[in-house]
TrEMBL record:
Transmembrane regions: 5-25
UniProt-listed SUPFAM superfamilies: Subtilisin-like, YVTN repeat-like/Quinoprotein amine dehydrogenase
Keywords: Hydrolase, Membrane, Protease, Serine protease, Transmembrane, Transmembrane helix
Region (Disordered): 729-758
Protein name: Peptidase S8/S53 domain-containing protein
An example Gene Ontology molecular-function term: serine-type endopeptidase activity
InterPro entries (UniProt xref): Peptidase_S8/S53_dom, Peptidase_S8/S53_dom_sf, Peptidase_S8_His-AS, Peptidase_S8_Ser-AS, Peptidase_S8_subtilisin-like, Peptidase_S8_subtilisin-rel, Quino_amine_DH_bsu
Protein family membership: Belongs to the peptidase S8 family.
Alphabetical GO biological process terms: proteolysis
Peptidase S8/S53 domain ranges (all copies): 148-400
Lineage: Bacteria, Bacillati, Actinomycetota, Actinomycetes, Jiangellales
Length: 758
C-alpha cells in the first residue's frame, strides 16, 4: 500500500489543501511517491459516512453522444450515506459545473475519472498450477486454508456470467445499471471471478475461496464494458453493500504531470478508496501489464497506474509457473506483492468463461484475484480483524525467497510471493484474546466485597472492594473483551486478566462513559470520559487509563443550566442540563468528535437513576424528576432524541436500576420510607404501552442473560435477599452456593432478544 503526499500539476498547485497523508499500511523498504492526497475536510466528510445497502444508488445511463464526458460526484447526504452519481456534460462545461458542485454542502469530490482498461472433485483441477504454487497439494481439491465462508468479495470488472456452472451460487448481489445487456459480454470479469470464487464439485475448477460470496459490480472499461458506471462509483456501492475485500483487475496510465482535469479525476478515485479502506475493506488492484516485454501495449514501460498507485491499494504483479516475474508485469515501486498470473513460457491461468466454458488467460488481472480472495477468506476466518491488519499480514508474510534472484533485486515484486496460510496465521496470532463472543451477555456483581464477572461460562474475580467503596458505574466493550467502571474514587479497566486502576477527580461525583473507535481531539481509539461539576471532560486511553485529552463541550447559547454526563448511547454522549426551578430540564446528544451538542429533548427534573441503553444503542431510557418519589421514565429514540414513551414511576416506589431486555424496558423498583429512601425491594417491573406491569414482588435485582455456554442458552441471574440463582437453572454453570449473596448488582450488557421472565 502506498503513502499519500501532496503533488503539483504542470507547476500549478492542485486545488487540494495541505494534508496529513493517508497511511493505512506502510512499506518497510521506504516511501513510494503517491498520486494524490485528500484534504482534511474531505477525509472528515468520508469519515462521517456510514456504509449501508439502503444508501441511494441510481447509476445514470451512458448517453449516445460520444462528445459528452462523465463527471463523477461523491457526496455525503443528510442520512450519512456516501452517494456516488454521474453527470454527462460537454467538456467545456465540466469545470463550471464542478465549481458549482464543490460549493454545495456535503460534496467530497467531483471530477472526470481517467479511462481504465482490463489488465487481463473437479475435472480441471489438474490444470490449476496457481493453487499448487500457493501451497495446495498438487491436483487435490482440498485447500490448506479456509474456504471463505461468511466473507464478501466485490469484483469490479466487466461483469460476471453468474449462470456459469462453476460459479453456482457465488454471486449474491449485482449492481445493475441502465442498458447493461449481457451480464458479461467480454469475459474478463467472469474469468477473474472464477479465480477467486469458483465452487467445488461443479465439474470444472476450484477458486481460491470456493465459498466466498461475490458482489458483481460492472464498471466502465475500455474495449470491454464501455457503458458501465465508473469504478469509483462502483467501489462506493460495494462498500455500502458489505464488501470485505475488493478486486479491481484494471488500470489506466497516470501522466507524470497530470493536468487539472486529470487531478480532479484522481481526487474522486482517491476519495472512493479512502472510503473503502477507512471502513475496513481490503482493496486490491492489478499492478499493470506494462513491463519490458516487447508484447506489451503501454505508453511507457513500467508506467504508474490508476488505481494501483493510489494510497491504500494493494497492487499485485504477476509471476509464471516457475516463479519468474512475467515479462509483461509492470516493474515499479507501487507493486506490493506478486501472485500467479502466467507469462513468458505461455503458461496461462485457467478460469471460468461466459457460456459455461473455461479459458486460459495471462496477466496481472489474473494475479490480483488470488490476493483479493486471500484477503476475503482471512476476514471470514477472523471477522474481528481490521482491514489494516489483513493487508499488513499479506505484505509481511509474502515470500521473496521463492522468486528468481535477479527479480528480487529490482522493482516489481514488492514484498514477494503471496503466502495465504502465513498471512492467515499472522492475523489470527495478532488478535487480542477476547474473553467471550460478542453475542454472549456479560454480567458483573458484588459478592463478599469482591467484584465478580460472569462471561456466560464461569465466574472470574475482578477486584477487591475497599470497605465502604461503592460501585458507581460499569460498562463492557461491545465484544465483551473489556470491563470498565468506577469504584469509589477509582477508575478501572479489566481485560480478563490484567487490571488497571487510576484515581480520578470526577469519579466520586458522576458516572463515566465508554466509547469505542471514536475521534477525540485529533486522536482515534477507545476512551473513557468523565465530566466534573464545571462541565469539563477528561478523556482516558482505555488501555492505560492515562489522560489522553481534556475538552470542553459546546452547547447552544440558551443551554445555561448545570450539565451532568449520563452515559454513552449509539456512539454519542448523553448529557443532562438542569435549568433550576424556573427553567426546563433537557437531555442533549453530544458528539464526541466535535464536542458540539445540537439535539435535545425536554425531560422533567434532574437524574434519579442510571440510564439504560438498548443493545444496539437505538433506544435510551432516562429517569428524571424533582425527587426520587416523583420521578418519571422517558424512553427516547437515540439518533434524534424522539420521544417514544413517558411513564411515571408507580406511587411509593423508586427506580433502582433499569435495563433493556431486547427492545422492552425493565426496571427493579424499591419501596420507599417516609424520607423517600429505599426501604425494601419492590420487585421487577416491565414497561408495557406506557404503563408499568409488575412481574415479581420479591426480586431485589435481576438481569437477563443470553448466549450462555450451557444446555440452557438463556436465563435470568436473580438476586434474592441473601442469595442468588439462575432461573432457569444452569446444568454446568455456577451453583447458588458459588454465586453466594449478591450484595450489589448484577449489572449486565443488554440482550439483543427478549429473554422471557421465568
Amino acid at each position: 500500500m502506498k503513502r499519500g503526499v501532496l503533488w503539483t500539476v504542470a507547476g500549478v498547485c492542485v486545488v487540494i489543501v495541505a494534508v496529513v497523508a493517508i497511511v493505512l499500511i506502510t512499506r518497510d523498504d521506504g516511501d513510494t511517491p503517491s498520486t494524490v492526497a485528500l484534504a482534511d475536510e474531505q477525509r472528515a466528510l468520508l469519515d462521517s459516512a456510514v456504509p449501508s445497502p439502503d444508501c441511494p444508488d441510481e447509476p445514470a445511463a451512458a448517453p449516445d453522444d460520444d462528445s459528452l464526458v462523465a463527471l463523477d460526484v461523491l457526496r455525503v447526504d443528510e442520512q450519512d450515506c456516501l452517494v456516488a452519481s454521474t453527470e454527462y456534460l460537454p467538456p467545456d462545461e465540466v469545470e463550471a459545473r464542478r465549481a458549482e458542485l464543490m460549493a454545495e454542502d456535503g460534496i467530497v469530490a467531483a471530477g472526470v475519472v481517467g479511462e481504465v482498461a482490463v489488465d487481463a472433485e473437479d475435472d480441471r483441477r489438474d490444470d490449476q498450477w496457481p493453487l499448487d504454487r500457493l501451497g495446495a497439494e498438487v491436483g487435490s481439491p482440498d485447500l490448506p486454508w479456509p474456504d471463505g465462508d461468511d466473507a464478501v468479495l466485490a469484483v469490479l470488472d466487466s461483469g460476471i456470467d453468474e449462470t456459469h456452472p462453476d460459479l453456482g451460487d457465488a454471486v449474491v448481489e449485482r449492481r445493475h445499471y441502465p442498458g447493461e445487456g449481457k451480464h458479461d459480454a467480454n469475459g474478463h470479469g467472469t474469468h477473474v471471478a472464477g479465480i477467486a470464487a469458483a465452487r467445488r464439485d461443479n465439474g470444472g475448477i476450484i477458486g481460491v475461496a470456493p465459498r466466498v460470496s461475490v458482489l458483481d459490480v460492472p464498471v466502465r472499461l475500455k474495449d470491454a464494458n464501455e457503458n458501465g458506471p465508473s469504478w469509483p462509483t462502483g467501489l462506493a456501492w460495494a462498500v455500502n453493500h458489505g464488501a470485505d475485500a475488493v478486486n479491481m483487475s484494471f488500470g489506466g496510465p497516470i501522466p507524470a504531470e497530470p493536468d487539472v482535469e486529470q487531478a480532479h479525476g484522481l481526487e474522486v478515485a482517491a476519495a472512493a478508496v479512502y472510503f473503502a479502506v477507512s471502513n475496513d475493506v481490503v482493496v486490491v488492484a492489478s499492478g499493470g501489464n506494462c513491463g519490458p516485454s516487447p508484447l506489451t501495449d503501454c505508453d511507457n514501460d513500467n508506467q504508474r497506474q490508476n488505481p494501483a498507485s493510489l494510497p491504500g491499494v494493494i497492487a499485485v504483479g504477476a509471476v509464471q509457473e516457475d516463479f519468474d516475474l512475467a515479462g509483461y508485469s509492470t516493474r515499479n515501486e507501487d507493486i506490493d506483492l506478486v501472485a500467479p498470473g502466467g507469462g513468458d513460457l505461455m503458461t496461462t491461468v485457467l478460469s471460468t468463461y461466459p457460456g459455461g466454458g473455461h479459458k486460459g488467460i495471462q496477466g496481472t488481472s489474473q494475479a490480483a484475484p488470488h490476493v483479493a480472495a486471500a484477503a476475503a477468506l482471512i476476514r471470514g476466518a477472523a471477522p474481528e480483524a481490521s482491514g489494516d491488519a489483513i493487508g499488513q499480514a499479506l505484505l509481511d508474510t509474502a515470500d521473496l525467497d521463492l522468486l528468481d534472484e535477479g527479480d528480487r533485486e529490482g522493482p516489481g515484486v514488492g514484498h514477494g510471493f503471496l503466502d495465504i496460510t502465513g498471512a492467515l496465521d499472522q492475523v489470527l496470532a495478532g488478535l487480542p484474546p477476547a474473553m467471550t463472543p460478542a453475542e454472549r451477555t456479560h454480567a458483573v456483581f458484588v459478592r463478599d466485597d469482591e467484584l465478580v464477572a460472569f462471561d456466560g461460562a464461569q465466574l472470574v474475580p475482578v477486584l477487591t472492594l475497599d470497605p465502604g467503596a461503592e460501585v458507581r458505574w460499569v460498562d463492557w466493550a461491545a465484544d465483551g473483551s473489556l470491563l470498565v467502571g468506577v469504584v469509589g474514587g477509582e477508575l478501572f479497566a479489566w481485560d480478563g486478566s490484567e487490571l488497571v486502576e487510576t484515581a480520578c477527580g470526577w469519579c466520586s461525583e458522576s458516572r463515566g462513559a465508554f466509547l469505542e473507535d471514536v475521534h477525540v481531539d485529533g486522536a482515534t481509539g477507545d476512551f473513557i470520559v468523565g465530566m466534573d461539576y464545571t462541565g469539563a471532560m477528561t478523556w482516558y486511553d482505555v488501555a492505560t487509563l492515562e489522560e489522553a485529552a481534556a475538552t470542553t463541550p459546546a452547547f447552544p447559547a440558551d443551554a445555561v443550566g448545570t450539565k451532568t454526563l449520563l452515559g454513552a448511547v449509539g456512539g454519542q454522549l448523553l448529557v443532562h442540563e438542569s435549568g433550576g426551578a424556573q427553567a426546563s430540564e433537557r437531555v442533549w446528544l453530544l458528539d464526541p468528535a466535535s464536542g458540539a451538542a445540537e439535539l435535545s429533548a425536554d425531560v422533567m427534573g434532574s437524574p434519579q437513576a442510571p440510564i439504560a441503553a438498548a443493545a444496539e444503542g437505538e433506544q435510551v431510557a432516562v429517569v428524571t424528576g424533582y425527587g426520587a418519589c416523583s420521578a418519571e421514565v422517558t424512553v427516547l429514540e437515540s439518533a434524534g432524541l424522539t420521544e417514544l414513551a413517558v411513564a411515571p414511576v408507580p406511587e411509593d416506589l423508586i427506580v433502582e436500576e433499569m435495563f433493556f431486555n431486547g427492545e422492552a424496558l425493565y426496571a427493579t423498583l424499591a419501596q420507599t420510607a417516609s424520607n423517600c429512601s429505599a426501604l425494601q425491594p419492590g420487585g421487577l417491573w416491565r414497561l408495557d404501552g406506557g404503563q408499568w406491569q409488575q412481574l415479581s414482588e420479591d426480586t431485589a435485582a435481576a438481569r437477563p442473560l443470553e448466549g450462555i455456554e450451557d444446555a440452557v442458552e438463556q436465563s435470568w441471574l436473580i438476586a434474592y435477599p441473601g442469595l442468588a440463582a439462575f432461573d432457569p437453572p444452569l446444568a454446568d454453570g455456577p451453583s447458588p452456593e458459588e454465586l453466594g449473596a449478591v450484595t450489589d448488582g448484577p449489572w449486565a450488557t443488554p440482550t439483543r432478544t427478549e429473554v422471557p421472565w421465568p
